[in-house]
TrEMBL record, chain A:
Keywords (A to Z) from UniProt: Membrane, NAD, Transmembrane, Transmembrane helix
InterPro entries per the UniProt record, alphabetical: NADH_UbQ_OxRdtase_su1/FPO
Protein family according to the UniProt entry: Belongs to the complex I subunit 1 family.
Compartment(s) where it occurs, according to its Swiss-Prot or TrEMBL record: Cell membrane; Membrane
Annotated membrane topology: Multi-pass membrane protein
Pfam families named among the record's database cross-references: NADHdh
Coiled coil region boundaries: none
Transmembrane feature ranges: 6-26, 69-91, 111-137, 173-196, 228-248, 254-271, 283-308
Gene Ontology molecular function: NADH dehydrogenase activity
Entry protein name: NADH-quinone oxidoreductase subunit H
Gene Ontology terms describing biological process: aerobic respiration
Annotated GO CC locations: plasma membrane
Amino acid sequence: MTETPLWSVLVLPVVLAVITVGTIAFDAVLAARAAGAVGAPSQVATAPLREVARLLVTQRRTTVTADGVLWRVGVLTVPVAALLAALVLPLGGAAVADLDVGVVWFNAMEILAWAAVWTAGWGPNAPLSLVGGYRFVAQGLAYELPHMFALITAATAAGTLRVGGIVEAQSGVWFVVWMPVAFVVYLLSAMAMAFWGPFDAPVGRDLAGGAAGELSGVDRLVFLGGRWLLLVVAAAMAVPLFLGGSHGPVLPPWLWTLVKTAAVLAGLVWLARRFPTVRMERFAEFAWVVLVPLTVLQALVVSVAVLAW
Amino acid sequence: MVTTVLFWVFGVAAVVFGFLVFRLDSMAQVTFALLASFLCVAAEVLLLGLGYLGLVIVLMMVMEMVIMAVFMIMYMMNPAGLMPMAMYHNKAGAMSISVGTFVVLGAGIFLVDWPERAGGPPAEPTVALGTALMGPQMLTMMTLGLVLFATIVATVMLSTQRGRYDRFGDDLRARRPEDPVPGGVGPQRTEMRGPR
């Protein structure tokens, strides 16, 4: 791991923003195709950017006796948590901060989203958005334990909590090869964390938008943009954890990281369009009865393998 | 220099947020003021060079406070905790106890004859702390952990009204669980099942 130059602090948000816009555009194209391809591809792909412009000039809606402080704090925390979690992402061999306890940092920062979505749902003093916030807490309780076991499994195999160290440990075999369960569970919980795809019940249509239902204008842009950013960061983290990070032949390391991240993101966005929203109580039961034992078993296998070799 | 300034900033912020817990009148705001106070404490731990401990405090406290907010608002005596409320009871007594404790502890800092530092910090402070705390008692702690966990599982098993036989039939053959509320939660429907 090389010494990180200071300018990487400025580069990281730009890179993440570009990837995020790309992901949103890809999703818009998929949505248009599912709807029967209305409009030219270029027009469809730039639709999210026009939406951004619209949100920037839309007037904010207010509700009666809203809890303004918690509402704003919650909305703002979503992108901030995603950015902070991204600090340990090794973009082609150099993270902004390759902390000794990078995996724990990543997990602690993404957990901030729990508080963020709940307060964003609580803030406007509206029932549907509050239900959305509660749904996210229920979902979080169900995905967090398998998620932690998946993270721990990768860290155990590498013998370090440093993300750079986990990448180095995969110079031979990628972790996805011998810990497929942890990888799949990680991807599932990455989607759940960004309340995306089958796990979008907290902002579900049946709740008229749920936690995001009362948001308008800049607030809406920050909250939903932050949600996309969460998805991008969580998907990008799958690359150093399980997919060998920057390792790969021919291409330069940074390009490998980018290619793998794009592949994971494309997969998640495509998958999300293939599956309907999972009901909260079904996901909770599935997570506790199936995912937790499976990930514990996976961690056991990896631990025994590490001890044996 | 920067570290010292940050230490004071987070220290003062932790006290201010802690004080706000007793000044704010909304259950949700109180909970998150307490969370903010804990996060400031976590920042102090990080400044002490204990990376793992500091981050675990962040992780645990955010989860804990969100769950606490949910439960406290659910079970508060006023509907959904939405009416203005106060976190203190027995105002005069509580105030004198807390101010008294603060004064005693604060005075202790200046009165105690602190020892001079001998040697430098270890390379891995978290490992050193863990060894110092747990070292010779590791086996005891692991046994204790296992017993505690078994107790939790056994207690839940004994106290739950609906087990797998209620859900999947006496021979556990039912393909779909019979649940009053989907997801394996909810009360037992004795009137539907007849004598056992």
